[in-house]
Sequence to fold (760 residues):
Amino acid sequence: MRSAFAKRESRSGYIFAGPAALFMFALVVYPMAYGIFISTQKTNLIDEWEFVGAKYYLQLISDSEFFSTLGTTGLFAALVVAGNMIIGLLLAVIVNQKIPLANFFKVILMLPWLFPETVVGLIWKWIFSPLFGLLNHALMSFNLIETETDILGRENTAFAGVVFVCIWKGYPIVMLMMMAGMKNIPQERYEAASIDGANKWQQFRHITIPGLRPIILVAVILETAWWFKHFTIIWLMTGGGPAGRTEVVSIEIYLQAFTNFNFGRAAAESVIILLILLVASFIYSRVLRDESE
Amino acid sequence: MQETRKRFGISRKALATGVAAALLISGVGAVSASASSKKPAKKPAATKPAAAKEIYDFYNPKCPSKPTTLRIATPIILEVAGAVEQQIADDFMKACPDVKVQFIAIPSNDLPQKLTTMAIGGNMPDMYVHFTSFTGKALQMRVFEDLIPLLGKDYMSGWDPMFFEESVMNGKMMFAPWVGIPTAILYRKDLWAAAGNPAFPKTWDEFLAVAKKLTVDTDKDGKIDQYGWAIVGTPNGSGQGRFSQVVRNSGGYNYRETDAGKWESGAMTKGYLDALTLYQNAVKEGVVPPGYTSTGYPEASAQIANGKAVMMVTGPHSMGIIMKANPALDGKLAGFPMPTNNGAKPVTTLGNLGYAVAKSGKNKPLCIEYIKFQLSTKYQLAYNKIEWRLPSRLKAQKDPQVTGGMAQGFVDALKGGLWTEPTASFNGSIVKVDYEAYSEAFQGKKTPEQIQKEADAKIKKVIADNS
Fold:
């Protein structure tokens, strides 16, 4: 039999964990469960509710356009995450050196992260504008182009344009995480490596990167989840165009829900994205953890 | 007056017949009958017995006895005519000091989405501006109050039947038509004259030829600085609405409801193909300013205002925005009916809009007071004066201010015939297919036939998924 003390302690545990559990339920479990529920309904979310089972999931797995959108999203997320990781890490290493005005550069390099996404999207849309944009004006002033070029209106440049802007917006947070991670790498390792004759690249390769591996794992998971479902900048810059070349899955979900009113299908798409991201996170954590072990 | 009736192609007899038929079809009789058999609902103060004639040159509202806030979701407040909308609200608040009119400003392209989220969140305003393109969604969401019993059947006869009929679906009046914007080709008269006053194009081929003629290097620096056509190529309702006009005026359609009540794709029609070909050729021929895929309605208007382009597919309201940007263009703007292809008659949309009363609203009697106040002839004409929009009420239409001037060509466009956007709830998906199709045509990598086939498959899939 459990003692009265053990029972009391157990009750206290529930009491202490209760509020947090309630918050978790209200803010995480309930919305997710509700999303899954909606994905099984034909509904206008007001007064029309009809159970359709897995209809929308079946529609989606036989929809080549949805897979094409997923492909665009995957490529977009991969390029942006890779760009953020490379540039973020590179800049973190540079500003971590003992260089003059390092703090000033840190602040300047953090600026893109401080701008709201809407501002970033609109500023770059204007910069890229073929009629009024700064970029075209500059290129024409230096006689690099003869006529205005419509970067966001051409299918071969629009995708690169939004990827570039998203990297510009996203690298600072990676840089910040890497800088924090570097502070945790003992200086003695570098000193020992230096005594052993390791050059800067070897130190980076064999001390910095392994030391940053936990940070890289977290950054890659967070970044992938973030950019895979990114909406704002792309929507503002191209609206998914031209001709669907920048249409990522979040735009497709938005259009399904708020243009086509097909909330059930939009919810089903969201659930699929959730599953994809869960699988991606699992794979990342296994791969990176295995390597670090 | 006679001139006005002629202008709209409506005789007095036809008008009376039209109104009577519309009332019958719309079920006014049924509403009256049911109203008489039931205990009457609390009548709104304004539905006083009204004569069949238009009596509201200026309507004096009946005010509530307690402080009330009237929330109105509107894109107009953001536009040139926002000054008139605000003036109406200010005057109403003067007439009813206990009333506070609060506008919720929403850009027109975002209005359906915003209203959707408001409806889902149970936060609908008392009234909202209804475009006919929102009809399908409003029907699906059942967010509007039927205005016929609230306004009273006598009030209905004051509307131009064209406007009235578009506002009534399944016997219920979804919104109180305020103004219309018939689509035509707007052009700069001064730049047209500078090109030697070419004849107005009757076909789209002629349109392209004229656009070429108007595309010139005016300052002779070796670079084109004036283009024939300010094309709206953005992937949204503004771009698609104009593309749809070209399709219709080429004898085609994107989708429609058959007599059997089924939806069918029209992407394989010759008109749809011709419209895609026109868009592709316009880019190939260089008659549209660079940046066409990101040229929305404001940008295209700006191109007309600053002389960067000469023609634009639009309604008379654009003259307001253009003249705001360049007041020197007063008297230098005009319109002509849309060119056609394949023997099609020039047709246009009415661009009918007005306030709808939300079903969930708590101030419906006050909303009705406001609508009658806002539809006073005085304000209809004020709106027309600032943006050339066509008033919906017959009394205002008869005013000489409406009949002449720069808006004449747009009014003429109504003579060919009207068409209304289909009201399927999945209309948004068709809009997307359309704008993907013309965006693809802009790219020039696929032939119009290929794009047409893809669009057809997509439209069929949308229909199948939603049936």
Observations:
- The CA atoms of residues 240 and 247 of chain A lie 4 Å apart.
- The interface with chain B takes residues 44-48, 59, 65, 125, 129-131, 147-150, 152-155, 238-244, 255, 258-262, 265 of chain A (CB under 8 Å).
- The two ends of chain A are 43 Å apart (CA to CA).
- The first strand of chain A starts at residue 41 and ends at 43.
